[in-house]
Structure formats: structure tokens, C-alpha cells
């Protein structure tokens, strides 16, 4: 059976899910966050070691101030209220993205849940907040130069150690809502990932939908530079 360590999800469609029901976008974001909590626990129960999710991109700051403020408040609420549950379930919570531009209360909530779960070993829940894949490559390159290593000896595998978090490559990338683009999410880490684009909006992407995604993944013939994975 194909190895599946690292799953990444672009949680798309919250706003459209709410609009379809005659509700404000904020309602969709709240339902999406509730779904993420349940879905993340289910995914780790399936033996997945790393779950990366796209919470908020650097470009999302271009949205209305009202929506941005709602999302920031939601992040603080979720990180604070769900801290004990992730700790109890032995899940380590980490973050990627630029800290500049985030509110102090958001940073404090992020730091608290990261510190409180740092010794957990039952899975890594990787939240990308104020994140952009191109910025991550740039920031990693700055670390490489500052380290003083011989650039001629740098390999693609070694380069990944300089990213925001030192994680294995993505095996399976899921984007909900039917959109078929990466939107600057973990570009380097997804170089050989399998992709899946269900039409389901994220608030409805539950454990049953994830099981369907797994069926698709295990039916694929993964190829790394033309070599079929056995």
C-alpha cells in the first residue's frame, strides 16, 4: 500500500457555502472552523502523521476589514478553546507564515497552543496563517545565505530544512469547492504530491468525503520523476 504521511488541505468554499444558504460569509467561516476540528481528529485517527491546512494567506488581508477582523477573532477563539482537546489527544500544533501583520492577541494564542503541545507525539497539525508559498521560499533562501553553507552542495532535500517548519514532503493535496489551483500554498513541498479537487465546499467536507479522497489516492500510480511507486 502507498505510504501516506502528509496530507494538505486548502479549505475553500466557506463563503460560497454560506451564500448558498442566504447567510453572511462569516457564518461559513465559523462552520468551516467547526468542521476542521472534527475532520482533523478523524484524519489523525487514520494514521496520518502530518496534516497541513491553509487557514489564511498573505493575500487574504486584501479582503474587507470586517471579514479579516472576524477571521482573526475566530482564530483566537479556536486556539484558546481547543487547546486542551489537542493536548489531550496528543496532537502537536505548529504554524507557518509571517508573523508581521498579525495582531498581538493572535500571536499570543498561536504561541500558547504551540508551546502547550510541543511535546505531543500523536500527529502534527500544521496551520498556515498569513502564509504564502513564494514568501516561504524567499525566507528559506535568506536562512540558507545567513547560515554560510556552501551553496554548491545544497540539495532539494536539505533546502526543505530551512522552511518555516521542517516537515516531510506532501503526499496528498486536497482543495475543496471544485477550484483547481494551488493559490501559492506549499509550492515546493507539493512537488510530487497527488492532487484531488472535489466539488464539495469545505464545511461539508466531512469524514465520509475524506474517505472518498483516500480511495482516490490509493487508486493512483504515484510517479517520482517517471518512476512508479510500488
Strand content: 15-25%
Mind describing the biggest β-sheet? 6 strands, parallel
H/I helix tally: 8
Please state how the strands of the largest beta sheet are arranged side by side: 3-4-2-1-5-6
- Rg, please? 18 Å
**DSSP strand tally:** 8
Q: Pick out the low-confidence regions.
A: none
**N-C termini distance:** 8 Å
Q: Share of helix among residues?
A: 40-55%
Average pLDDT works out at 95
The general outline is: globular
Give the topology string: H per helix, E per strand: EHHEHHEHEHHEEHEE
Helix/strand/pairing category: alpha/beta
3D structure, described in words:
The structure is a single chain. This protein is an alpha/beta fold. It is 42% helix and 16% strand. The chain has 8 helices and 8 strands. It has helices at 14-20, 25-45, 65-81, 83-88, 104-117, 133-147, 156-159, 207-219; strands spanning 6-10, 50-57, 92-96, 124-131, 172-175, 194-196, 223-224, 227-228. Strands 3-4-2-1-5-6 form a 6-stranded parallel β-sheet, sandwiched between helices. The protein has a two-stranded antiparallel ribbon with strand order 7-8. β3, α5 (104-117) and β4 form a beta-alpha-beta unit. α1 (14-20) packs across α2, α2 (25-45) runs parallel beside α3 (65-81) and α3 (65-81) runs parallel beside α5 (104-117). It is globular and about 55 Å long. The N and C termini lie close together (8 Å).
Amino acid at each position: 500500500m502507498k505510504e501516506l504521511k502528509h496530507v494538505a488541505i486548502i479549505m475553500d468554499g466557506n463563503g460560497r457555502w454560506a451564500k448558498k444558504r442566504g447567510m453572511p460569509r462569516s457564518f461559513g467561516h465559523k462552520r468551516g472552523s467547526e468542521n476542521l476540528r472534527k475532520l482533523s481528529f478523524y484524519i489523525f485517527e487514520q494514521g496520518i502523521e502530518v496534516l497541513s491546512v491553509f487557514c489564511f494567506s498573505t493575500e487574504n488581508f486584501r479582503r474587507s476589514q470586517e471579514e479579516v477582523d472576524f477571521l482573526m477573532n475566530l482564530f483566537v477563539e479556536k486556539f484558546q478553546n481547543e487547546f486542551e482537546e489537542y493536548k489531550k489527544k496528543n496532537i502537536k500544533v505548529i504554524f507557518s507564515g509571517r508573523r508581521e501583520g498579525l495582531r498581538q492577541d493572535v500571536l499570543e494564542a498561536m504561541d500558547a497552543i504551540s508551546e502547550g503541545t510541543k511535546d505531543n507525539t500523536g500527529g502534527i497539525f500544521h496551520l498556515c496563517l498569513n502564509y504564502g508559498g513564494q514568501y516561504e521560499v524567499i525566507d528559506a533562501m535568506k536562512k540558507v545565505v545567513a547560515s554560510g553553507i556552501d551553496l554548491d552542495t545544497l540539495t532539494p532535500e536539505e533546502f526543505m530544512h530551512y522552511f518555516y517548519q521542517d516537515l516531510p514532503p506532501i503526499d496528498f493535496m486536497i482543495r475543496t469547492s471544485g477550484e483547481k489551483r494551488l493559490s501559492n500554498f506549499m509550492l515546493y513541498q507539493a512537488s510530487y504530491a497527488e492532487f484531488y479537487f472535489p466539488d464539495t465546499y469545505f464545511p461539508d467536507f466531512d469524514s465520509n468525503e475524506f474517505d472518498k479522497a483516500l480511495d482516490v489516492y490509493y487508486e493512483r500510480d504515484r510517479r517520482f520523476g517517471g518512476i512508479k511507486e510500488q
